[in-house]
Amino acid sequence: MTGALGILRVQQKEGTILFQVEGQATVVLGLPLRRLAEQSLGSGVSRIRMDLRHCTWMDSTFVGTVLLLVRAALSKERGEFCLVSPSPECRRILKQMGVDRICVIQQEDELPPESWTEVERVPAEGDSFRCNVLQAHQELAELPGAVGETFRKVVRCVTDSHPGGKAP
């Protein structure tokens, strides 16, 4: 298994897109994850599954992107979103943020390594990247309690720091 730098893998079959994260799930993986998932949902896929057994850590942008995709999947007819076999580190983060109460979580056997295709990274710059970061944090701001309040402050800070009070 590789170290800290996160790797995103994908496969698609029978109306389902499956993702696998290895290493750290950070802001850098958020945009390619979102793009692929949204393209798939737009072309007839209704189920998203994310295998986190090899994920060692998730940052707030990645978790917020997951929440965006939960909403997108569930808005489709017969749409589903499931986190598969999260590592103990991921379970702790999901529980601390209250996301474990929002997402379906299942334990499953791992698919063979040759069935996955590695997803190319997107440069961590540009309007699309910044927009995903903001929207991910807006999703986190919707969480109840102290976690949501923390991210509401982050969103206010980001939007207040841009001309016209809007982030890109």
Characterise this structure.
- The chain is α/β, with parallel strands linked by helices and 168 residues long.
- The chain has a single domain (7-161), classed as Transcription Regulator spoIIAA, CATH 3.30.750.24.
- The chain is built from 5 helices and 6 strands.
- It has helices at residues 27-42, 60-74, 88-97, 127-141, 145-160; strands spanning 7-13, 16-25, 47-58, 80-84, 104-106, 117-118.
- It has a 6-stranded mixed sheet.
Total number of beta strands:
6
Please report the first level of CATH classification, the CATH class: Alpha Beta
- How confident is the prediction overall: mean pLDDT? 91
Shape: globular
CATH architecture: 2-Layer Sandwich
